[in-house]
């Protein structure tokens, strides 16, 4: 413990790391403050009374979870960072089908900047569509619209919501560029963690006097977190032999020979399959939200995140998208070509086409248990709800929330670890290193 405290002190000895952490915390604080600034003209008293009456549905709770409460607060950042995520997903899908986008993806840094600009423009368009829907379907349904509702108020409120979402994107990009960790992912994580204490207190209040159940829920939550860390960090190491070069009279391993294995992650796709799948199954929930008088069987099934058919469809979509996104993240042919150029090869496998086929088959086999794990994580909240856990607290037992929290925390710790090790200091954990470092793009796909 004393060693760990000393390592924490070492963080503040590195000036650049200290500045980055302070900047990150400051920008996160600004984002959190923005979640409590109410849209001008909205009757917050009526909104709070409607929420306290328990009129919020599961979809509202889910959207509020990823906006840090900004959605249910009717704040200027009510749309949160989700429009940017949706735009990023659309751009990634276009990269699979549109040659012009594929060309930009292969242009390196300049192509990435152009894609980011198009993503921001698309984000503005998505916000412009979501903002009036949010006001009409949520704020108006709560009876929180201003008494003097005018066209001017609608226009300026839509502009405020769009500006709030873009400001959140700007904060995330500044954290990524000048702070520590991936900014967009950190903002989502902070929004999720902000709801955790309130959900846990609510669960304790419901089960007041039943201490055993509370303890069992905490233990189950910790087991899920540990299992998630285990899978997120899981790596299949493919042994490699590297060429040697002659320096003077000695045979020395080439620079590429410093690593004698090729790491293939069990969960190479990160949280993206769950985000893809939830984005698709959420569409019917949003479409059905306006028709509550005569709900059909399909509407009832797809509007219940804890129902059987919802979770079956969600699990199948996650498995499909895991293979889809892994194919985007890992290119066996490119890996084989890079190995061939560097003089490396897999023992017993010929360089070139045979190596690409070997890696492709291995990735396919590894992806299957990874996809099953993601599907299992996604449906754990439904299982927790059936076990009697409060709906708000059950959301933290799995799904996107647990993967994002674990992934972002690990990624941030790995970046801090790198700063310390680069300055010949001990890492955060005595006798160990945080393994499986993931890039910001791999974690969030943004």
In short:
By secondary structure, the chain is mostly helical. The chain has two domains: 35-179, no CATH class; 206-446, Orthogonal Bundle (Preprotein translocase SecY subunit).
How are the SSEs placed, and which strands pair?
Blueprint (H helix, E strand, L loop, with lengths): L1 H12 L1 H20 L9 H9 L5 H9 L3 H4 L8 H16 L1 H7 L3 H31 L11 H28 L4 H24 L4 H23 L1 E5 L4 E4 L2 E4 L7 E5 L6 H17 L8 H6 L5 H22 L2 H11 L10 H34 L4 H4 L4 H24 L17 H5 L2
Antiparallel strand pairs: 1-4, 2-3
Family: Belongs to the SecY/SEC61-alpha family.
Subcellular location: Cell membrane; Membrane
Keywords: Cell membrane, Membrane, Protein transport, Translocation, Transmembrane, Transmembrane helix, Transport
Describe this structure as you would to a colleague.
The protein has 446 residues and is mainly α. The protein folds into 2 domains: 35-179, no CATH class; 206-446, SecY subunit domain (Preprotein translocase SecY subunit, Orthogonal Bundle). 69% of the residues lie in helices and 4% in strands. It has 19 helices and 4 strands. The protein has helices at 2-13, 15-34, 44-52, 58-66, 70-73, 82-97, 99-105, 109-139, 151-178, 183-206, 211-233, 272-288, 297-302, 308-329, 332-342, 353-386, 391-394, 399-422, 440-444, and strands at residues 235-239, 244-247, 250-253, 261-265. The strands form 2 sheets. The protein has a two-stranded antiparallel ribbon. The protein has a two-stranded antiparallel ribbon with strand order 2-3. The two termini are 37 Å apart. The relative contact order is 0.12. The model is unreliable at 251-258 and 436-446 (pLDDT under 50). Pfam families: SecY (PF00344). Keywords: Cell membrane, Membrane, Protein transport, Translocation, Transmembrane, Transmembrane helix, Transport.
């Amino acid at each position: 413990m004393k060693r760990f405290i000393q390592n924490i002190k070492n963080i503040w000895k590195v000036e650049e790391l200290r500045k980055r952490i302070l900047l990150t915390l400051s920008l996160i604080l600004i984002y959190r403050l923005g979640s409590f600034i109410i849209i001008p003209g909205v009757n917050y008293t009526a909104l709070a009374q409607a929420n306290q009456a328990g009129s919020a549905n599961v979809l509202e709770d889910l959207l509020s979870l990823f906006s840090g409460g900004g959605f249910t607060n009717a704040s200027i950042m009510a749309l949160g960072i989700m429009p940017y995520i949706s735009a990023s997903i659309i751009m990634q899908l276009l990269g699979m089908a549109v040659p012009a986008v594929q060309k930009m993806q292969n242009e390196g840094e300049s192509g990435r900047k152009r894609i980011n600009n198009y993503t921001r423009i698309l984000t503005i368009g998505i916000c412009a569509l979501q903002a009036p829907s949010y006001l009409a379907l949520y704020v108006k349904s709560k009876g929180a619209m201003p008494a003097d509702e005018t066209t001017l108020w609608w226009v300026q409120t839509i502009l405020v919501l769009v500006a709030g979402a873009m400001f959140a994107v700007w904060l995330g990009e500044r954290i990524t560029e000048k702070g520590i960790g991936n900014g967009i992912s950190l903002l989502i994580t902070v929004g999720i963690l902000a709801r955790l204490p309130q959900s846990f207190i609510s669960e304790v209040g419901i089960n007041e006097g039943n201490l055993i159940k509370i303890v069992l829920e905490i233990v189950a939550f910790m087991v899920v977190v540990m299992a998630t860390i285990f899978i997120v960090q899981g790596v299949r190491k493919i042994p490699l032999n590297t060429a040697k070069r002659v320096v003077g009279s000695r045979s020395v391993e080439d620079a590429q020979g410093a690593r004698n294995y090729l790491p293939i992650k069990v969960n190479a796709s990160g949280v993206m399959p769950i985000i893809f799948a939830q984005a698709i199954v959420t569409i019917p929930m949003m479409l059905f939200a306006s028709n509550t008088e005569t709900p059909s069987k399909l509407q009832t099934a797809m509007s219940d995140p804890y129902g059987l058919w919802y979770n079956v469809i969600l699990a199948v979509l996650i498995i499909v998208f895991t293979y889809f996104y892994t194919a985007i993240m890992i290119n066996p042919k490119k890996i084989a070509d890079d190995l061939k150029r560097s003089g490396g090869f897999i023992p017993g496998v010929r360089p070139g086409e045979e190596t690409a086929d070997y890696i492709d088959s291995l990735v396919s086999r590894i992806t299957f248990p990874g996809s099953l794990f993601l599907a299992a994580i996604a449906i754990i909240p439904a299982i927790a709800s059936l076990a009697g856990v409060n709906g708000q607290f059950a959301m933290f037992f799995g799904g996107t929330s647990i993967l994002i929290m674990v992934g972002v925390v690990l990624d941030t710790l790995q970046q801090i670890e790198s700063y310390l090790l680069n300055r010949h200091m001990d890492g955060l954990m005595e006798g160990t290193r945080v393994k499986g470092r993931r890039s910001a793009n791999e974690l969030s796909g943004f």
